[in-house]
Design goal:
heterodimer; A: about 90 residues; alpha+beta; Histidine-containing Protein, Chain: A; globular; B: about 575 residues; alpha/beta; Enzyme I, Chain A, domain 2; TIM Barrel; eight-stranded mixed β-sheet; 21 helices
Chain lengths: ~90, ~575
């Protein structure tokens, strides 16, 4: 199991489109994927769950991944956040 | 009789029988089950979800050319496949012994309400998606008509919770005169299509679905923005007469399609159309326009969550060029910013977006977006008579910067082996007052002018025309506006470049003689006003134009207004 804190750096926050990108990526992997924000923990493979976090720019998310391909999934997830979900400024 | 006040987003009158298509939330009857039935309910759940997913896959394929609709169904699919959704619905069945319909209903309402409460457009859209998905599942479970297109009679007036542009086009084909839409704004895709196909559309009546029942006789008054439910006989008669008169007038207009306007002062008159979304084109070409004088491209960012790709744009521009068969198609590059935003671009908060990073400025500061668009336009340019037009140009400097950008993109394309129209014309919108004032300089470097009157008036008079406190201040025939247009027209004539008007003034018959007198002979007109303007053009007399030419516009507004009335019967 790996845990990592990631900051939301894209201006629009994790709204509908970034949530869909996270879920789409996560469902390609076998590992379990959870996201925690201020004590609220959701299934990262659930669009409803990820959106319910309504994570705004600047908020910190605790990423918890557990499974055979956990490192690969983490890498992909970090990439999405780092690349600001393709958002244009 | 009941009068419900709303907002008209497409004018006109429609009389007919109410057809409630999609209540926002279906009425679900309470149905308790026994513990022994739990398994059967869960099996039923799995089955219905599979069925809706399959249906969604078909819809995604069906909409392969319409990215915005496709995005919606991709989002539906993700909701249907959500493992947590499944868990929660099953839990409601197991723990509370709720029937399947009730469990689904409860779960989806909870989620939709939550997203709606977040007060953010992106989440609100998701709330609509959840409601749609829930309705699609429940429609199957309680045996109501499926999600597929409804069939309408011409005297039906559908009342939608939400709808899609393609559904509105179908309504027009079926002869429906108007419809009510729960969610919609004047600038939405749906509103544009409704206006273009001349369907009356009213939005925003609170609690409409509990105030109108199926088969109620209703009148949509799209001029005053209201619905009259079960009108009194005399009221009904009044509206029937109005409608008849209007239909007779429209029929007369149709006879004008094949008539070519006479030359005025030996100059050809060109009547072109403004296109806001590609869906309008087929309908607009039946009006026999001389070209597309303004093809707005902001629709590529509307109602969707992904950036338009070069390939997607290329296909659209190419189709447009081919459909116009050699007649000009002026593609205006993205005019984002101002009041047009997208879900994909994080805009810096601007104190005054209309004076901010919009139009050409936005494109120049986002070279990747701009490059994809220019690539697509240039590649499409060999399939017809395509021209490029920049919005929000301030003067020669920003124009030349953008032109250099185009030339660079062009030479890259040529190196890669693409065929492009190397002499593609590149023109500008005249809508910032500075561009009009410096039009003599601009005319020496650009290929054509097109006056965007809406912004020119707004910026010159410092009036936001959507501000309800300022009605009466927004005056298109203000002497300052006429001066600026005159200056621009003279510069175009002097340097021998084409000039057109594509703003709302060109769609207003009253202003046509004035524009002709200024020496402007090309008008790009909203499709719904096209024949009205053509009628005016055909009726205008050369002596009226001469009178306006001799008139000194350096005078007060009322005198100008009086003069315009004298030459317009």
């Amino acid at each position: 199991m790996i845990e990592k804190t990631i900051e939301v750096v894209n201006k629009l926050g994790v709204h509908a489109r970034p949530s869909a990108m996270l879920v789409k990526t996560a469902t390609k992997f076998r590992s379990e994927f959870h996201i925690e924000k201020e004590g609220m923990k959701v299934n990262g493979k659930s669009i409803m769950g990820v959106m319910m976090l309504a994570a705004e720019c600047g908020s910190e998310l605790n990423i918890i991944i557990d499974g055979p391909d956990e490192e690969y999934l983490l890498k992909e997830i970090e990439k999405l956040f780092k690349e600001k979900f393709g958002e244009i400024e | 009789m009941k009068i419900l006040k709303g907002l008209a987003i497409a004018p006109g009158i429609a009389i007919g029988n109410a057809r409630i298509i999609k209540q926002r939330r279906l009425e679900i009857k309470k149905r308790d089950i026994s513990a022994s039935e739990i398994k059967a309910e869960i099996d039923k759940f799995e089955k219905v979800i599979d069925e809706v997913i399959k249906d969604t896959d078909n819809l995604i394929e069906e909409y392969s050319v319409n990215k915005a609709n496709q995005d919606i169904f991709e989002s539906h699919k993700m909701i249907l496949q959500d493992p947590e959704m499944k868990k929660e619905v099953i839990k409601l069945i197991q723990d509370n012994l709720f029937g399947l319909e009730q469990a689904i209903h409860l779960h989806f309402v909870k989620v939709a309400n939550y997203f709606e409460s977040l007060d953010n457009d992106s989440f609100a859209q998701k709330a609509i998606d959840y409601t749609d998905v829930s309705n699609r599942i429940l429609n199957i479970l309680i045996g109501r008509k499926g999600f597929k297109q409804n069939v309408f009679k011409s005297d039906d007036i559908p009342l939608f919770y939400s709808t899609t542009p393609s559904q509105i086009i179908n309504l027009a084909r079926e002869g429906v005169q108007g419809f009510y839409l729960e969610k919609g704004s004047e600038t939405s895709h749906n509103a544009i299509i409704a206006r273009s196909f001349e369907l009356t559309c009213i939005v925003g009546i609170s609690d409409v679905f509990s105030q109108i029942e199926n088969n109620d006789l209703i009148i949509l008054d799209g001029n005053e923005g209201k619905i009259i439910v079960n009108p009194e006989p005399e009221q009904l008669q009044k509206y029937k007469e109005k409608l008849e008169k209007f239909n007779k007038y429209k029929k007369e207009l149709l006879t004008l399609i094949d008539i070519k306007p006479d030359k005025l002062f030996n100059r050809e008159i060109n009547l072109e159309v403004n296109i806001e979304v590609p869906d309008e084109v087929d309908h607009s070409t039946t009006l026999a326009p001389d070209g597309i004088g303004l093809f707005r491209t902001e629709f590529l960012f509307m109602d969707r969550d992904s950036l338009p790709t070069e390939e997607e744009q290329f296909q659209i521009y190419k189709t447009m060029a081919e459909k116009m068969k050699g007649k000009p198609v002026i593609i205006r590059t993205f005019d984002l910013g101002g009041d047009k935003f997208s879900n994909i671009v994080a805009y810096a908060k601007e104190e005054n977006p209309f004076l901010g990073n919009r139009g050409l400025r936005f494109s120049l500061s986002h070279p990747n977006i701009f490059r994809a668009q220019i690539n697509a336009i240039l590649r499409a340019s060999v399939f017809g008579n395509v021209k490029i037009m920049f919005p929000m140009v301030m003067g020669t400097k920003d124009y030349l910067k953008a032109k250099t950008f185009v030339k660079k993109v062009m030479s890259n394309l040529i190196t890669k082996g693409y065929e492009v129209d190397e002499n593609i014309e590149i023109g500008v919108m005249i809508e910032i007052p500075s561009a009009a004032i410096c039009s003599d300089q601009l005319a020496q470097v650009v290929d054509f002018f097109s006056i965007g009157t809406n912004d020119l008036i707004q910026y010159t008079l410092s009036v936001d025309r959507t501000n309800e406190h300022l009605t009466g201040y927004y005056i298109p025939h203000h002497p300052a506006i006429i001066q600026l247009m005159k200056l621009t027209a003279q510069a175009a004539l002097k340097h021998n470049i084409p000039i057109a008007v594509c703003g709302a003034m060109a769609s207003t018959p009253k202003y046509i003689p004035l524009l002709l007198a200024l020496g402007i002979n090309t008008f790009s007109i909203a499709p719904s006003a096209f024949l009205d303007v053509k009628k005016r053009v055909l009726e205008v007399k050369e002596e009226d134009i001469q009178r306006l030419r001799d008139f000194d516009f350096d005078t007060d507004i009322d005198t100008i207004d009086q003069m315009l009335k004298e030459v317009t019967p």
